[in-house]
Amino acid sequence: MKLSRLLIAASAASVLALPASAAEVKKIGLAVPNLQADFFNQIKLGVEKHAKEKGIEVVVVDAKNDTNTQVSQVQDLMTQDIDAFIYIPAGAAAAAVPTRLAREAGIPVINVDRTPEGAPGDTFIAGESVESAYEVCKYIIGKAGGSGKMAIIHGQKGTTPEVDRFTGCKRAIDENQGVELVDQQWSNMWSADEGFTIAQNMLQANPDITIIFGQADGLAMGAAKAVDVANLSDKVIIGGYDGDVSALEYLAKCTGPFIATATQSTQKMGVLAVESALAVAAGEKVEERQTPNAVLTTCENAPEFVKVHP
Amino acid sequence: MVADVKERRGVAGIALPSLRGATGPLIGLIVLCLFLTFATDKFLSVRNFLNVLDQITVLGVMAVGMTMVILIGGIDLAVGSVMALAMMVLGYLNVVAGLPMGIAIPLALFVAALNGLVAGLLITRFNVPAFIATLAMMSITRGLANMITDGQQIIGFPAWFNMMAIVRFGGFLTLTVAVMIVVFIVGLLYQRYRHGGRVLYAIGGNAEVARLAGINVQRATVLVYVVCSFLAGLSGMVLAARLDSVQPSSGVSYELDAIAAVVIGGTSLSGGTGGIGGTIIGVLIIGVLRNGLNLLSVSPFMQQVIIGAVIVLAVTAETYRKRK
Amino acid sequence: MTNRSPILSLRGIQKSYGPIKVLHGVDLDIHPGEVVALLGENGAGKSTLSNIISGTVQPSAGEMTWLGKPYAPANPRAAMDEGVGMIHQELKLLPKLSIAENVFVGRYPMKSGRLDRKTMEDKARAGLQRLGLDVAPDRPVEGLSTGKQQLIEIAKALTLNARLLILDEPTAALGGEETQALFRQIERLKSEGVGIIYISHRLEEIRQITDRIVVMRDGAKVQEFDRGDVPIRTIVEAMVGRSLERMFPALPVPTQEVALEVRGLSSPSKAFRDINFSVRKGEVFGIAGLMGAGRTELVRAITGADPISAGEVLLHGKPVTPRSPIDAIRNGIVLVPEDRKLQGVVLDHSIAENIGYANLGEIARNGWLSTRRIREFAEDYIRKFGVKGRGGQNAGELSGGNQQKVVLAKWLARKPQVVVLDEPTRGIDVGARSSIYDLIMDLARQGVAVIVVSSDLEEVLGVSSRIMVMAQGKQAGILNREDANDVSVMELATI
């Protein structure tokens, strides 16, 4: 009896506390696939920093790369009455269900990095992978003298970035007759330890590889370790992608075989996501596709990115 | 006086065999719900309760099979991978090969059950320890699931399929939740009131005693692994409906979640005690906990710490209670 | 003997668990070089008393003096450091470790910071050989028979260099030869001035080995004999607190109709070879032999628990050679196994469930059953067999004798034609034994063919109308009751 009265009082209070206007954004839900990955963590930091300046609360959920978990978490976000939803799909399959849930709740949906097929959000913010991957591969092939045996360490097979980054790099390879693509392997987690193992196996099978492209900085860093261990540091050139903090610090030293990456403007993506959410909520028109450019980063410009991550 | 105490405990134990050892978890679940009710005004609502039910369907269906395996003193590490394989088979048959769902679903479940048959035969005929046999099956089925589409996801199921997981019939139950509830009830009745269910307790209690008592331990063991894999496949069907897509990377480490739910529910890893009643509570604890922590906006890293702590708490509390 | 000062003195030792008093002020002295038998039925307080001496349990009141100094060990380690060693009735060996490692566990011989495996194995081998056990000390304990494991347990205690040794049922799983070897070691320890507390249900042994007998009943010392060779009847009467009419009930007269016949039975492991015998309806057929003679393996094969490589089993002239326990049970041939705790009952399940497990098919209606129905079914048998416990109670809480009744009850519900009992009274106290014997005779009277395997010679002689003696896997002969006595059986067993 007493309990139920308490509960009624509590729910009444919560009704009073509801935001007066639906257009006003007080609480943003952010669903990320995996905070273990620096790339997503940077986006999260960007969102949180910018939201704090605007006085907006951010609720973050981490799916640990599992789509099912992410759907559950998005349900819980909706229960918390968020006013806007920033959605970075987890797993190889970008599930459409979270977008549908948000649509049902009538709130803005901002997709970052990946977008589910058939259920687009209000805007899609993602780096342009094809062009940037082309830039990285062109640079490392050029450093290698425009010829030699090359290997690619792919990311998780079937994901959009994996496909796009390969398309871009392949273009650079095709432009150089002297480059022969001798080995390609796929990782599951985009992680450094996978990069290490894969590169070691590649060098075992083809000791005369001189160019390696890792589709993520983690993979490239792992490959660099493997090259060091094999005592081939002065013969092999490695390129990466993403511009992780640790990779930028590595590049800034200008000593190892890993010499170039494409630094994604991850923090800027987060800022952009919050801005877009506010704009959509206010009824303004937002671009369907927004592409903060990735910047080719080498030993020369790495130090400035270490200071301030874009 | 002593005899009296023993007798009373005996009566309680015998009247509620499916909840034996699960009274602790049940109290834990109630305390957790009370806490969340006061900690956040979002928790106690029909909508959120139905959300939680939606969220535990996959784990719930899988954990029923795992309970039976653990009850006979076994373990099945392959359920997560078997689930992914069943999903990929479903996607391939329905979307790629164009077979109707009425054929694709039974075939996908059959493939799942087949994995259990292989594991069961490895364990009984070739004396491979259950841990190793299912560890091997975990790797094999994951590889097969990936091979079907070379690691790609499959989308394009008929629209009604996703609706099964979304539309709440009568404003209450989605079809997937209904599937879970049916599995719960059938599992409970089987374990408590069927000849085959009681036999599992005997095997888990002491396989040699059971064998000498004329129980066909080998057949029951194979059957349990088949059922567990079948239910893993069924949970895959539920997940496919929920996600409206299938991908071979689904269900990684789900076997550990299922084992955690079973153990939190009071079933002993050495077999012979516990049951599906406890497991349902274990599944609810995990579901409510994850839901509540999200509602409380607890940071994702802190959530991992809390869930681990709850597992430890549940199991040590139970051990402590037993020792007393 | 008594003029020397005792190694250990107990004065007024009491022990209570909550409101229940299990020891009521026991006094006891153990002198160097004497073997004191501690006798009593299960629950008399022998184990509690020895656990107090060995530091496993702390007394509620009373004092202990060890070599003239106050003695209050906080744990078994402390007692061991003082020089008190104990062999537990339940085997406490680590199955995956080698024999030598088991003998020296916790006190491994070291050489310059490393395990001295050679010394350890040499010492273990020497210790085992003194007990007449010739096995490689580096093989794991797992897979050794219960008897051999018991010898290892004894060897472990003998290498402790203890001043006082407590032996709790050391010969429960031993054959005659091993028992004699153990006794030789006890004599040696005696001459070295070691005091020994000897707990056993085998009263024959007690007469042979002990210097003094202390009888306990209901937590108190009730009688003390200053010599070992007291008539068994006298000891038993002191233990049970009443005079005994007889130890073994009268044998029913068997029919002439042959129920079970075994022809040329052999095992793939060569544990037994070419065994031929038959058992009539209503007959109790004994199987005797030393440890390792193949008795257990033979009866397990007859009941489908172990494989058969050649020969056949016939029931009423029809071949029924079993391939599994299910096969045998279906034909009405059932086994009450040697190791109750590992093969007979599920210790942490209820009595009702234990009885139910062999009868689920019977209890279920169209495959449906409930806990209530299992319990109702079991209650009947619990009453009929006088099991001291209730349906909902865990089997592990029962005494050995009551556990054995549960195993019997589970089978008798199926109205079997052949009942095989392997070591039916091992570890069961004297009072309860006679009720097991009564049950055996009841079975025979109802026309069941009964086979009893026992290492306890007196028992086989007492209950069987014919006895087959086995030696090294072969049948050495079948004796009629009139011709069977300890001498004739031992002659055959040691061929």
UniProtKB/TrEMBL annotation, chain A:
Pfam families: Peripla_BP_4. InterPro entries: Peripla_BP_I, SBP_2_dom. Keywords: Signal. It comes from the Bacteria. Its main location: other. It is found in: Cell envelope. Residues 28-285 form the Periplasmic binding protein domain. Residues 1-22 form the signal peptide. PANTHER family: D-ALLOSE-BINDING PERIPLASMIC PROTEIN-RELATED. Belongs to the bacterial solute-binding protein 2 family. This is Monosaccharide-transporting ATPase. It comes from Shinella yambaruensis.
UniProtKB/TrEMBL annotation, chain B:
PANTHER family: ABC TRANSPORTER PERMEASE PROTEIN YPHD-RELATED (PTHR32196:SF21), ABC TRANSPORTER PERMEASE PROTEIN YPHD-RELATED-RELATED (PTHR32196). The keyword Transmembrane helix applies. It is found in: Cell membrane. It is a multi-pass membrane protein. It comes from the Bacteria. The chain crosses the membrane at residues 21-39, 59-79, 91-114, 126-145, 166-190, 222-241, 262-289, 301-320. Keywords: Cell inner membrane, Cell membrane, Membrane, Transmembrane, Transmembrane helix, Transport. The keyword Cell membrane applies. It holds the Pfam family BPD_transp_2. This is Monosaccharide-transporting ATPase.
TrEMBL record, chain C:
Pfam families: ABC_tran. Transmembrane segments: none annotated. The keyword ATP-binding applies. The keyword Transport applies. Keywords: ATP-binding, Cell membrane, Membrane, Nucleotide-binding, Repeat, Sugar transport, Translocase, Transport. Residues 8-243, 253-495 form the ABC transporter domain. Belongs to the ABC transporter superfamily. This is Sugar ABC transporter. The lineage of its organism: Bacteria, Pseudomonadati, Pseudomonadota, Alphaproteobacteria, Hyphomicrobiales.
